[in-house]
Each structure stands twice: as structure tokens, then as C-alpha cells.
Amino acid sequence: MTHPLEQLRADALRDIASAEDERLLEAVRIRFLGRSGAVSEWSEKMKSLPKEEKPIVGKLLNEVRAAVTAAIEARADEFRAARESAAVANIDISLPGTPGEKGALHPLTQILDRSISIFRRMGFALAEGPDVETEWHCFDALNTPPDHPARNEQDTFYLRDGRLLRAHTSTVQIRAMQAAAPPIRVIAPGAAYRRDEIDATHSAQFHQIEGLYVDEKVSVADLKGTLEFFLRELFGADTAVRFRPHYFPFTEPSFEIDVKSKAVKGGEQWIEVCGCGMVHPAVFEAVNAARGDSAYDPEKWTGFAFGLGMDRLAMILFDIPDIRLFAQNDLRFLRQFA
Ligand code: DAH
């Protein structure tokens, strides 16, 4: 004779197998396993069974509960799998996908990256300083007299607290020397700001790479060799490089560098690309005073410094007619450099 629990199991398995959807299956689950379902009822009945029957019926009850639970889960899995394959049934996986749009580096970033990697090959480390600067870092420490026109409010953005937006990246020369004793060999790429009238070649924010090399016996020959190498790497091996005497307060002697290159449209003209010179002893003395030591003894150390206008370099190399294009985010312009 089959035990009623075995009959119950057979009924449950049959109902589970014939449940046609998830809702009907849930109804079966409640009927058998729910709080007042058939299996639960048997748990109640157990209490009134004679002591010797309890272990046998108890074991059977556990088996029935496990079998019914497993059958319901298996059936639910079937429904879930069917639902998932129905969801993708109409998708043609042989169709080509929607390509994601690929970005590209901004032309200015491309020239900046190329320039940085050339200097890194010559052993220059990267240095940085804040865009919001003290007047001391921007002018005084760089031997710029109090009446110099660059200090004028017409030329430089001043903040109410007396600080300013750096008018050049030469500030990082000072910061680098404050932070480390010589020898030192750094470049500092970054933004600079001037209150220029904005036009095709002037922007309130532009970009420079500053360079500084201080060691024993650094000479103008080192300066020339380094910058000629850099410019020929950037503009091509047959580029002509010319040094013209110039004046900067923080270098003595000072030069401007012009290049003439076939890589440039209208390559028969000299174009100015860089300011540079030998670090003025007054700059070393200002740094020493701030450091409170004489690490940069001008009798022992010499150095050269330079400043390259990156917007200008990118405009020359890519033949870009207007500096404002760099900041306008016009995709028709930017896509040409992708
Ligand atoms: N700071 C100068 C400028 O913005 C460029 C420059 C000239 C930087 C000579 C230098 C240098 O380091 O030695 O016009």
C-alpha cells in the first residue's frame, strides 16, 4: 500500500509538470508548500502520530518536501530560460554592430605630447606649479623690475588678494629650484594667462613649455645644442635654426630662436618659436634668499632656461590660421586631427 505522502508526492509532481506558465506553477507551489499547503499540513499531523511511526513518516515527509521543492525550481528554470530565449529570438546576431565613436587627441595635446617626449629623451623631468601664483614667483624672483610693463594690470590678471594668473610658466623655474638643490633638469608644460586683446594670434589663455637646466659649467653651447636638437626633432632634420640676441630680465645673455622649415607652409620665412637664455645670477640669489641657503651659488652653478609657445608651435606645424579654434570645440575643426 502506498503511503498517502507518496500519493501526495505523485500528485504534486504531476501538477508541476503540467503547470503551463509561471503563474500556474506558483499556484501549485502554494497548494503544496505554502503555509497551509498539503506538505505543511503533514508536518502538523506528525505531532499526533504514535511515537514509533514518527521517524519513518518524518523521513518520508522530508524526502517528499525535497522532491517537490526541486521539481518546482527545475520547472521555474525552464520558464526563465524560455523567457530569455524569446527575448532575443528576433535579434539577428549576424547584423553588424553599431560602432562606438572613437575619440582623438586635441591638436595642442598632440604637439605637447610630442614635445615632452623629445625633452624626456634628453633627460628632462616634468615639473609643475600652480596657475594662480604670487607676484613674487611671477616677477620679483625672475628679476623683473617693479615698473616693468608686464606687471601692469592691463597685461596681467590680478586676483583681489594680490595673487595673479601666471603670465608665463617661468614661475615653475623658481618653484623647481625652491624644491630641489642643483643639478636640475626640468620642463614644465602648462597654461599661462594674459590680458591681451583677443584676436587670431592672441588668447587670454595659452600654453607654454618652460625648461630649466642648472649644473656645473652649463654654457650657451649646451643651450644651443639642446634647443636645436629639439626643434629639428619637431620640425624635421633639415630645419634651419637661428639665435637672435634679445632681452629677458631673468636671463643674460638672452635670445629668441627662429626656425625655417620645409615642414611649414611658406617655409621660406624665419618664424620665431622660443625665448631663452642663461639664467641670470639675480634669479639664483632670489631663490637662495627664499630657500635660506646658498644652494644655487652663482659662482658654482650656471644654467639655461627657455620658454616655448605651444599654441604657436601647433599652429605652425598644423597650419592653423586662428588660435581661437583651439578653444571653440568645433568638431569640424577637431576631426581634421584625428
Ligand atoms: N617667459 C617668457 C615669455 O613668456 C619666455 C621665456 C624667455 C622663458 C626666456 C624663458 C627664457 O625661460 O629663458 O615670453
CATH architecture of the largest domain, by name, is 2-Layer Sandwich
User: Numbering strands along the chain, what is their spatial order in the largest sheet?
Assistant: 1-4-5-9-8-7-6
The CATH topology of the largest domain turns out to be BirA Bifunctional Protein, domain 2
Q: Calculate Rg over CA atoms.
A: 40 Å
Helix content: 40-55%
- Mean pLDDT, as a whole number? 94
Number of strands: 9
Proportion in β-strands: 15-25%
Ligands: 3,4-dihydroxyphenylalanine
Low-confidence runs (pLDDT<50, min 5 residues)? Answer: none
Q: In the CATH hierarchy, what is the class of the largest domain? A: Alpha Beta
N- to C-terminal distance: 83 Å
What structural class results from the helix and strand content?
A: alpha+beta
* Biggest sheet layout: 7 strands, mixed
Query: Helix segment count?
Result: 11
Order of helical and strand elements: HHHHHEEHEHEEHEEEHEHH
What is the total domain count? 2
Looking at CATH, the homologous superfamily of the largest domain is: Bira Bifunctional Protein, Domain 2
